[in-house]
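Re: the pair you flagged

First of the two:
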Amino acid sequence: MEQKYDLRVIRTYKSLTEAFLQLMSEKHFEDITINELCERAMIRRTTFYKHFADKYEFFRFFVRQLQADFDASNTASADYQNPHSFFMSIIGHVLGFLKEHEQFVHMVLSSNLLSALLDILSEQITFDITEKIKIGIKKGIGVPASPEVVASFFTGAIIHTVRWWFMEKKQLSEEKLIEEVEKILFALH
């Protein structure tokens, strides 16, 4: 069942999110205090603590909101009929999503939160791939291993490659990265 929020809660979350992004552009996450966040969002500390135990819980909430955006914008192929185009569409979606949120990704890169962000995205990507492979299996498409193992394997490859790409300050263009990954997928085919 979908949880409904009243407008005050929605407004509080929106204010906190905007304030958080502003503060992240000015300083490292580790240096942001709850007081600063609340002042910038124009909410009371008691309101913050009514919703979140600490700034790390708020960060998880923030990333979950990004995850919901990631889900909503997922245009990857509906099933696993053509593994090559299926995985290429997922890679394209991940890169597009990170590009859309590039400012936040760069802010996270300068803090110790990159692993947390990538773990949450990994969870979602693994779930999406697993579910789509299961749909393919129901349609009679053969899979070389269990859906969970295939999903975990490709998610790890995608996440690790994207992490490397960002950490190397994108020495390859996005197009070249996609081209290189496509070569690997063809070699596996």
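Second of the two:
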Amino acid sequence: MPRVSAAFFATGVLCILASGAIGMYMAHANDATYGGLHAHLNLVGWATMALCGTFYALTRGTMWVPLAWINYAILTAGIVLFFPAYALFLSHGNDPVYEPVMTAGNGLTGLGMLVFAISVFRELFRARPSN
């Protein structure tokens, strides 16, 4: 497995562990305040990172390695910015002071998905040997 794929999976595992802890907290406290955070950590943190890691593992021989690492860095930065800010936003009664950091994290996540789209379409349209 390429190291970049392992990095995507490692970050995804950290996100699913955090999401699980949040889910257990919500169940124990009977408080669904962090439901959105829990769901987004599952989707963006675990599923998206794992899918990117899988894609880059499957395209190990044809991927552009620098672009894959740029993809990883941008998505990870988006996660690192968005999720703590979102948790603070929720725990402080939807205080808008956290919105600029959440917006920056969302923007980076969106940019990361655009970079991933470039990788996917690069693979789709790359020249292949004729058989």
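The chain has four helices and no strands.

-B.
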